[in-house]
Structures are given as structure tokens and as C-alpha cells.
């Protein structure tokens, strides 16, 4: 198992010190578990270590997978954020339109002036809905690729 530790340390020697220890520890544990599983299947310890190291790949492969995961998480977070923005803008618009309607009917019920500002206020949630639908469409396009 010392070979695995040396391999992992040499592989991630150029990574920032902040992340290096955490990455080395997690990859070492993962590779050690893989070697133990391969030994249980009947391979010798050296063959299991060699096979685990070959299947691990390169540093670029490791970071490519992590970058893809981070991008996916960021897209999901962005979609949730736009959903929350849409809810907030819808509730805010409803409150403002309700207030305008109340003022209109309470003080001057013969003239319905609140309709014009209400239409203008409705553009706020519509703009956010447009952004949300745009992000979802981009997510589907990236998923299809």
C-alpha cells in the first residue's frame, strides 16, 4: 500500500497546498479500497495495485470529472436561484398590484387607472420567467451534447 501513497503523492504534487492533503487522502482511500476489492477477486497484491493505478488514469482525468460535477452543481443552483427569483417577483408584483387596486377602488372607483401600472409591473416577473426558461433550455442542450 506504500506504492499507492507514493503514486498519489507524486501525482498530486503540483496541486495547491490547500486542496492537496484532502485530495491525497480521499484518492488514497479510494485506491486502497479498490486494491482490496481486486485482491478479494483473486489477484495478487502487486497486480491489484497496478490495475487500480491504471484504471485511475491521469490527473487531468481526475480534475475533468471534478470540473464537470462542479459545473453541473452550479447549473442546478442557478436554476433554483431563478426559480426563487420568479416566486419572489410574482409575490411582490401581486402585492403591489393589489395595493394599487385597493387605492384605486377606495379613492376613485369610477376611473380604473391602476390597470396601466399593473401591466408595467407584470413585466418584472415575465423577464425573470424568460431567464428561467432560457437557462432550462440551455441545460437541456448541454445535456443532449
Provide a descriptive summary of the structure in words.
With 145 residues, the chain is mainly α. The protein folds into two domains: 1-57, no CATH class; 69-145. It has five helices and no strands.
Quick gist of this model?
With 145 residues, the chain is an all-alpha fold. It contains 5 helices and no strands.
Write the layout of secondary structure elements.
Elements: H1 2-11, H2 17-40, H3 45-56, H4 59-107, H5 115-144
Average of pLDDT: 83
Gyration radius, rounded: 28 Å
Q: What proportion of the residues form beta strands (DSSP E)?
A: under 5%
Report the major sheet: none
* Overall tally of structural domains: 2
Broad structural category? mainly alpha
Relevant terms:
145 residues, mainly alpha, 2 domains, 5 helices, 86% helix
Amino acid at each position: 500500500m506504500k506504492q499507492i501513497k507514493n503514486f498519489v503523492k507524486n501525482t498530486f504534487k503540483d496541486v495547491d497546498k490547500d486542496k492537496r492533503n484532502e485530495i491525497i487522502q480521499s484518492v488514497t482511500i479510494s485506491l486502497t479500497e479498490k486494491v482490496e476489492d481486486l485482491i478479494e477477486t483473486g489477484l495478487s497484491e502487486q497486480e491489484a495495485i497496478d490495475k487500480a493505478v491504471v484504471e485511475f488514469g491521469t490527473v487531468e482525468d481526475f480534475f475533468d470529472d471534478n470540473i464537470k460535477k462542479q459545473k453541473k452543481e452550479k447549473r442546478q443552483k442557478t436554476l433554483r436561484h431563478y426559480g426563487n427569483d420568479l416566486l419572489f417577483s410574482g409575490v411582490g408584483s401581486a402585492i403591489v398590484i393589489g395595493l394599487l387596486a385597493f387605492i384605486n377602488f377606495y379613492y376613485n372607483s369610477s376611473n380604473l387607472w391602476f390597470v396601466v401600472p399593473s401591466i408595467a409591473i407584470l413585466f418584472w416577473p415575465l423577464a425573470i420567467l424568460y431567464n428561467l426558461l432560457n437557462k432550462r433550455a440551455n441545460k437541456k442542450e448541454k445535456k443532449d451534447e
